[in-house]
Amino acid sequence: TATVSVASLKQLALDCEAQVWGVQDERGHITGACITRVYETPNGRFCTVFVAAGLLMPVLGEGIALIEDWARGLGCRAIEIIGRRGWQRVLPGYEPRAVVLEKNLIGELH
Prior knowledge:
Blueprint: H1 6-14, E1 19-24, E2 30-41, E3 44-54, H2 56-62, H3 64-73, E4 76-81
Parallel strand pairs: 3-4
Antiparallel strand pairs: 1-2, 2-3
């Protein structure tokens, strides 16, 4: 289930609360993108990749090093990636730390 809309993602980026990372092919066409957010906790600063679309390998497989360097420069302790299980195959060094459970409440009978 989508938990964010295109409009809300655009607003986050315009408000400088999220960062949009894009990948282009050799012709200059955008082939993929991901969105990150940096947040503070009592345990330090963290970066989350919470949306990715397009060709997965260029966005996360090859592009994640750029995001890691950027987050490290901001003092982030870690990067967490919220996504599909299949993303793990292009992200060496990333380990599952949690499970996201969801229950649809719309149209549910009691």
